[in-house]
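help with these tokens:
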Amino acid sequence: MSATHSHGRHLHLPRVRLAAIPDAKRPTVLGEILVGAALFAVYLLVDALRGPGRTAWARDNAAQLIDLERWLHLDVERGLNDWLAARPGLMTAANYEYATTYLVSAALLLVISYLWAPQVYRQARNSFVLLNLLAFAAFAAYPLMPPRMMPGFVDTVASGGTVGSWGSPVVAGANQLAAMPSLHMAWALWVSVMLARMSQRRWLQAVSAVHVLLTLYVVLATANHYVLDAAGAVVVVGVAVGATARLMRGSSGRLPTADAFFLDIETPGNGQNVGGLALIAGSPTYDEIRGLLERHLPQLPHFTDRLAGVRGAARWEPAGAIDWSHHLVEVELPAGSEVGGSGVGGSEVGGPSFGGPSFGGPSFGGPELVALDELVGRLTTPQLPQDRPLWRAWLVRGVRGGTGFCIVMHHCMADGVGAVAKLLCLLEPPYELPVPDRKGPGAVQRGAGVVAGLAQLATDGRPAAVLATGGSARGFATAEVPLDAVRDAARSRGMKVTELLLAATGSAVAGVDPGLASRCGGRLRVSVPMMLRAPGSGDDDGNLTAAVLLDTPARGASIDELRDEVCRKAAPLRSPTRALASRWVMASALRAVPRTGRRAFARNVYGPKYFQAIVSNMPGPDRPFTMAGLPVGRVLPILPPAPGIPLTVGALSWDGHLGITVVTDAAVLDARAVVERLEARLLEPVGVVAQ
């Protein structure tokens, strides 16, 4: 009898999508001011192109343009100008409109989008800069005298004495020969296009259209521009908006190299999937969990995207309707099944069944939970198909007293902490994962840290031995211990919890397989992820951690006996330099490397040549939650091993407990034996001497 059920109901709802998180971040105000200053500096350079010869050139160009408009029957400027000049009050109003509204509307659009629509602001800023640069290039290459400086036209500014308008004494130094294209029209059109991207309200679109038409009338009737100047404005706006939209589509969805790294290392049967297992006290229906996921998909970056161009520059693109029969599957565990072995392979399911845990006890263990571990290992080991969104979830039925909920996403979507931050939105009440409130290094400090870190990484050396790979089957085992007890055990020895976890890991490995510890020279080379999220950044997308390599003793000794050596070896964790260097290589330096080179680099450095285990200690919430209205009892992390690495240990603090997951190469280490020894070492009383 198959243990897997694909839910047969398919209800395809319209896809809701948010802008990618990196594009939604606001740039710094100082940086934007510098961009504006640089743009104005370019204008001044163009304006410096003056002289009698240029003025004559501009007059000849204007005469030719007037002749062309007459031939095209577009020469309406003279009639509009005569009519307006005969009405002094209206003429003055038109002059002030010409002098102010294009500036005010553009400034308001930039400020409003910066404050309330940062995902629109970046394109608005980029297209605004580009359209002005195109216009400045036209001013330099094609000086054009405006109609008001040509015979037969009335200079409404001069006759009306309008303060602040182009040509008036206040701005007498402005470029008088920059009629083509009309920047007034270009800015008005640009504001209209950007407003349409920010809001679909009809009244706002109507007001915007009136503004564009009014600007067109004013620039012609005040004899500041020709009809073809307005046509030139349409061209520069179209080119600028279209080019920036295309460039941002190509770059905003592109997979950063730090995320693509985990695609490059993935091998068949070794899916790089991160996520979690939660036990829910109750039996939520399939439709309740599906509805919960549907409601929160917009808050989960890339949960409605798939990867395209994986062989080249991988990027995210919309995946279309969600196939819920694939992404949310019910798994039934019939009672009375035998508990199987400790290894888990790459098949979909086929694991054992069990009665299940009660939710009141403080500890994890027993044959029922061994069976659950084996099943979760089977579910989360295979690679996720890249022709659809890179996540899956399962409802595990048959758990005594409740329901298991397991969800994973590809490591290219998030690191371990990022996965926790993403999935918190599925729980109630709302909660934001805290980030340590410490000031990050400045640009100079960061640069110096990267240089120092690169030197440190180059001298860290390699592990004492490269361990042979046992096979593709994984061992998967979990445990849960009281968090306060672990903290007390660490504090009483003057250790950090991560240092205690490292000591317990090395001791557990030596206790389970002394021969492995001996082949490692009595020390285990461990990769320890370090969080690099900034306080208040709101970043929960992609990989924002870096790894630090260090040696931890692998001896069958007590924690007290290992304490001094572990604290000394863990010293690199107290300095950010190695983490900064590691992050710089993955996120910046690899951008300059072709995809083939990046893949070769990733597979060379992320594996047994450089480390033998991964130990990750992740912060989590310190309060209880509900899911679909039901209490959440246990939460355990799911982390993937690096290819060829025999051991991965993930620890997640959650509501007063430390959930621990151990993943092993099943042919090399017994995951259950490791997690049991690890649990005992973490809670080991002070003063114990190993036998």
